[in-house]
Amino acid sequence: MNDLDKKIRDALRKEDADLFDDVGVEPSIFEMILDTFRGKHWWLSVITVVWSLIFSGLGVVSAVKAVRTEDPREMTLWALAFVFCVLAVSMLKMWFFMEMNKNSITREIKRLELQIARLASRIKD
């Protein structure tokens, strides 16, 4: 917990601090990964993982073929296939982590909305 979280916690009343404890826990990386499969576009995450596995396998095959061949032209083509597979996996992983980041930002916005709603109800009273 950093200093800003501690200052916020000290400023909140007791019941608000309990609420902050409930919603303020940052999920682990595994929970964040699973959250990408629970959203509205879960099928895109599944497709991303499947294509990442396919390109990873193709990359390994390409690397092995590039090392084992004797013909320079064929070696170059297999090496290019390997580079393409590595780039494809990198791009798919970046998309996946951007989805995780989007979910994290959405979670923080929901926390802020909750705090604003509680503050507005306290002002009305």
Name the descriptors:
mainly alpha; 125 residues; 5 helices; single chain; 86% helix
Task: Describe the protein.
- By secondary structure, this protein is an all-alpha fold.
- 86% of the residues lie in helices and 0% in strands.
- The chain is built from five helices and no strands.
- The chain has helices at residues 3-11, 14-23, 29-36, 42-68, 72-124.
- Helix 4 runs antiparallel to helix 5 (72-124).
- The radius of gyration is 23 Å and the shape is rod-shaped.
- The protein starts with a helix and ends with a helix.
- The relative contact order is 0.10.
SSE arrangement:
Blueprint (H helix, E strand, L loop, with lengths): L2 H9 L2 H10 L5 H8 L5 H27 L3 H53 L1
Helix pairs in contact: 3-5, 4-5
Quick description:
The chain is mostly helical and 125 residues long. It has helices spanning 3-11, 14-23, 29-36, 42-68, 72-124.
Share of residues in helices: over 70%
Beta fraction: under 5%
Q: Which consecutive residue ranges, at least 5 long each, have pLDDT under 50?
A: none
The total beta strand count reads: 0
Intertermini distance:
32 Å
Shape: rod-shaped
If helices are DSSP runs of H or I spanning 4 or more residues, what is the number of helices?
Answer: 5
Task: Give the integer mean of the pLDDT values.
Answer: 87
Largest sheet descriptor: none
User: Which structural class should the secondary elements be placed in?
Assistant: mainly alpha
Radius of gyration: 23 Å
Order of helices and strands: HHHHH
